[in-house]
Design goal:
The chain has helices at residues 40-52, 67-82, 97-110, 124-130, 134-150, 167-180, 196-212, 230-240, 261-270, 281-292, 313-324, 328-333, 357-366, 373-384, 392-420, 427-431, 439-442; strands at 20-23, 57-59, 88-94, 114-121, 155-160, 184-188, 218-222, 244-247, 309-310, 348-349. The protein is of the alpha/beta class. Helix 11 packs across helix 13 (357-366) and helix 13 (357-366) crosses helix 14 (373-384). The structure holds zinc ion. Zinc ion is lined by residues 28, 190, 222, 224, 253-254, 258. Residues 28, 190, 222, 224, 253-254, 258 line the site of zinc ion.
Amino acid sequence: MHPLIYDWNRTTETPRPSVMLDDETLRDGLQSPSVRCPSIDEKLRILHLMDGLGIDTADLGLPGAGPHVVRDVERLAREIVDGRLRIQANCAARTVIADIKPIVEVSQRVGLPIECGTFIGSSPLRQYAEGWSLDQLLKLTEDAIAFAVGENLPVMYVTEDTTRADPDTLRALYSTAIRAGAKRVCIADTVGHATPAGAAAVVRFVATIVEECGGGIGIDWHGHRDRDLAIANTIAALDAGATRLHGAAIGIGERVGNTPMDALLVNLVLMGYIERDLSALCEYCEAVSAATGVPIPPNYPIAGRDAFRTATGVHAAAVIKAFRKKDAGLIDAVYSGVPASLVAREQQIDVGPMSGKSNVVFWLERRGIAASDALVDRIFAKAKGSATVLTEQKAEGRRQKAEGRRQKAEGRRQKASYCGRPAGRSPRRSAGQGVKPRMWPGTTRN
Ligand SMILES: [Zn+2]
């Protein structure tokens, strides 16, 4: 952070809690109604990118959904083993033995421990809609977890709709799961209901249940974006005691999606929770976008086209002055809350109707083009008359036209100049050259 920044975000809480990350892109992410299911090669590339970003675990899929999922989950799990990836695997399963069995089988065939994320509806609202009783849920919980633990799979017990479930129900479900051998419990804000205060409250409550059960159980937070509070909720959950946070690349997932893993990573770095090389973060976003057919909007934070781009005169002027000072930290910080260099991008100055002449000068200089007054004036006039920022092609077209005009004018001046000279001193004759173009730049004026 630039030394001149006074950081009001900084809190006195120390030490920062340690945090793990679980990537849901290849499971919850693919439940988005708008995604195209990636090919296995695309999934493998995404898995490697997750690994490169230091993400701790990846949800490889829900094998209980059918043989096509089993095939991909097995290939991905094998890649973790063969490629010696650091990332660990987990899989989703309903809290039923039929869903857990295929995870056991893949784990045994590949020789990789796969954490079993067994999920179950927990809120009275859902119980009422489904016609379930709490006793039924407790029985399913006990049987399914006992089966998974008996097969040596680590278990994360996921309660769906936790953020709308009452304390007694949560205490009954979690204490049963922990007694049955679950090593982690996951608070799922399945419908994106929580606010940051609510997220913190439910995490603190679950932490008391964990303590009542003897402690030593990890708490996961799984958030959704329905109220557009996912990142804030996830950070609040971390501060309240969650130790693993879920997210998906570019926020894809059910309905409007999961907590965006990309923005979460950037926030965790900027807030000092983790240190991480994020130079491949945009590649990760773009790979998931290309593989799923979900476009990255231009104004999407960090990976969007406009994330580090300005065409506004005042903003651009400040950034340009920072460039002139050759102060990398200042360039990154003067008009951006996220340093572009953190994600291997850079500030981009464009030219549009809101621009000043300094935008044009800078635009030309960055391309190694001399910024003559005439050229600047022409591009500036074009930008002021345009409804949008000039595209690279438009600006270049304007530059080429201006250059063409300049050359023609120069040609006319040269001709006039030769006509005014004595015939015997014509440069064509004196230079002894008959090649016309050589006259233009080589001829001196009186
Ligand atoms: Zn979810």
